[in-house]
Write a structure and sequence with these properties.
This protein has 323 residues and is α/β, with parallel strands linked by helices. 50% of the residues lie in helices and 11% in strands. Helix 8 runs antiparallel to helix 9.
Length: 323
Amino acid sequence: MISKRKLITFDWAIKRLLRSKANFGILEGFLSELLKEDITILDVLESESNKETKVDKFNRVDLKVRNQKQEIIIIEIQYDREYDYLQRIFYAVSKTAIEQMADNSSYASITKVISINILYFDLGSGTDYVYKGTTRFIGLHNHDVLELNEKQKQLFEKDSIESLYPEYYLIKINRFNDIAKDTLDEWIYFLKNEEIKDSFTAKGLKEAQEKLSIMKLPEDEQKAYEHYKDDLRYQASMFESSFGDGYYEGKAIGMERGMELGMEQGMEQGMEQGMEQGIQKGLRQGMEQSIKTIALKLLQKDESPENIADITGLSIVEIESLR
């Protein structure tokens, strides 16, 4: 018998619980462990992607927050495979930066956006389970890194060009091997297993253990949560089924078409090789016959077989057989 998980999933928590200031400590703990600095959440920002729709329930959960540095942090949890996902997060970050910019403000006021993506599918071909993406400018000739000058540092209140641009974090949950080597791994363990071990010390996890208990949810919330999990399992099953059917159907069609092409190419190649071999054989037989004709005429003129062999390259036996 499979035991019920004691803690609700992080995506459900984001939708129902972590928007409340009373629970900001949980989210702040996760962000602090990932970004390697103490994060304080000022408020939750609403956007189109925060609206709950039937598609959102199945495909993604978005949360936008503002930290004490006035940076915008997007958190997205994605279950379904999307091959253009990298372009989608680029679009979301760009749209967020523009939304936060006043019409009459200068470019210097553009808000830095941090995109955190918790993925339950394997994106790309990398072997790690946490990736960070930033923007840097490298010299083509001297290979040095372009830096801010002192005036720009004062203007932007940043130390590097990299810190001006968006940051992207990709956490590939399914690649995590369940061995927590540090406090960030402890959070990833929770994200994967909805379980927090007593030995874990990461920021926010103890609070999560207390507040994200399924048993502490009201009865109607427990039923809604179980229904939500059933929906996720159904969607995962449908995706796997459609992917599998498509894969095997495509494989069968590919094999059939491959055999047809193979036969066509084989026939063409065979005809070409046959023609080439026929021409070569014909030329070879023609040359042999011409040489024998010359040898026969030399015999008729009483030329010795030895001299004829030197001239034509035929053996004495072959020359004598022409008499």
